[in-house]
Amino acid sequence: MKKIILSIQLLLVSVLAMAQETVYPAKAQTETITITNATIHVGNGTVISNGFITFENGKIKAIGQTAPAGTGKVIDAKGKHVYPGLILSTSQLGLVEVNSVRATIDHTELGLYNPNIRSIVAYNTDSKVIGTLRSNGILFANIIPQGGTISGSSTVVQLDAWNWEDAIYKADGQMHMNMPSLLPRPTRFGGFGGGADTRSSADRVKEALAEVESIKAFFREAKAYFKETSHSKTNLKYEATKALFEKKQKLFVHCDVVKEMLIAIDFAKEFGFDVVIVGGSESWQIADLLKQNNIAVILAQRHALPTMTDDDVDLPYKSATYLQVAGVLYAINDEDGQTRGRNLSFNAGTAAAYGITKEQALTAITLNAAKILGIDNITGSLEVGKDANIVISEGDILDMKTSIITAVFIQGRQPSLDDKHKQLNERYKYKYGIK
After folding, report:
1. Torsion angle in degrees (nearest 10) through CA of 160, 398, 357, 253
2. Closest among 258, 261, 376 to 307, alpha carbons compared
3. Residue 237, CA distances (Å) to 114, 182, 211, 270, 276 in order
4. According to the CATH classification, is domain 86-185+197-379 in 3.90.550.10?
5. What is the distance of C-alpha 304 from the center of its chain?
6. Are 330 and 299 in contact (CB under 8 A)?
């Protein structure tokens, strides 16, 4: 049986390795390009009807309603919509290829405290998932590590690169911390087959709080380490936290319930960290407090059930509205292990159906995400001087029925929109004679 399983895994890996060899990064922009007659969604709430956008050398040069006369390539987008490139705020893209094949997973290191780990060095630009994201207008992803208590740093990548060095858009901008769970749950299946957790709820919470104190002790020791004028030995783990204390890096705290988020706020106060809540399913309950403490939130999977059994079943859809009203900076994400991020725009579209406007929903996956990731000076909206990261869609990008992406540009380059899904579609259309 082991031999059969191994053979299946090797076959899957070999199939993945053989696919999409002819889909490669685009060459740099060489001529001025102007998109005309389009409905342009700037990303900051502004919509320009029958507008134009001109870009050259990878930068946006002009945007408005009356296109100036000039040379270069003109793309007539009459009846179409133009958007900024969408951004996945957290993702394991390029670190996981097939969830069920262990050999294609590289997102976790041994140990509890790994601030010195950099996710980017394991990022695989040949992942077949990347093409499926571009086809849905997603041009950027924040590649995060996983595992342990402090997992390491994440890097924002652009999704059209030969290797991980080429892919870097902003390196090591966030440190990731997994908050110990203060929401005790029973062991799955009542412990059958895997050994039951016999600890009481109080014991589990007590152990979680002890873990929190251990994390604080780690950061206190790191802070004391930096106060020393010289070190007899270099501590790589402490050294890796220096950017946090200098506010050159943000602390992304992965947690959901109110008690955990209150502890995250306490970290911000004690250590002066720029804290971002990742997950935040109950963030709506303390939206005013998050606003007061300048804490941003990345709402994780929106197409999901609520955290608590007595919450409204549609609460995940409405959370963005509560944060919007309170003035909290937030982004919407897609962390579904099956869609692998492809439903990002549709998660935002669902939020738009439950209280926020469509332009606010778009901002949550473009400009807001860029602000949280510290790249809003160069992307996230269609403004003069920013990178030409542009998506052209036949219809509303937030609507699953009309979101048909016809072209994308990353820093002015026009990458291929071919992907594994389209190739399989063509393969089986051919096999069964479907036209």
Report:
1. -50
2. 258
3. 7, 26, 18, 20, 21
4. no
5. 17
6. yes
Residue appearing with tokens 């204390």: 245
Residues 45-104 pLDDT 10s: 999 999 999 999 999 999 999 877 777 899 999 999 999 999 999 999 988 877 767 767
CATH of 23-84+380-434, one of 3.10.50.30, 2.60.120.10, 2.30.40.10, 2.40.160.20: 2.30.40.10
Distance, in Å, from the CA atom of 222 to the CA atom of 389, rounded to the nearest integer, reads 39
Place of tokens 């709402």: 299
Euclidean distance between the first and the last CA atom of the chain, given in angstroms as a whole number: 41
Q: Which residues pair with 379 in a beta bridge?
A: none
Which pair of structure tokens corresponds to residue 8? 């299946």
Residues in contact with 389: Cβ distance below 8 Å, sequence separation at least 6, in sequence order: 84, 85, 139, 140, 158, 379, 409, 410, 411
Token duo for residue 400: 């699953």
**Lookup: tokens for 246:** 């200098």
pTM of the complete model: 0.88
- Token output for 345: 């725009």
From the centroid of its chain, how far is CA 170? 13
Take residue 41 and report the two structure tokens written for it. 């969604």
Q: What is the pLDDT of residues 330-370, one digit of tens each?
A: 999 998 777 788 899 999 999 999 999 999 999 999 999 99
Which residue is it, tokens 């962390």?
A: 335
Q: Which two tokens stand for residue 298?
A: 């990345």
The answer to whether 91 and 140 are in contact (CB under 8 A) is no
User: Number of helices and strands (H, E) in the chain?
Assistant: 13, 15
Residue 28's CB: how many other CB atoms inside 10 A?
A: 10
Q: Give domain limits for the chain.
A: 23-84+380-434, 86-185+197-379
In angstroms, the CA 158 to CA 380 distance is 12
Read off the tokens for 166. Answer: 């080429």
Are 23-84+380-434 and 86-185+197-379 in the same CATH fold? no
DSSP code, position 130: H
110-161 residue pLDDT tens: 789 999 999 999 999 999 999 999 999 999 999 999 888 999 999 999 999 9
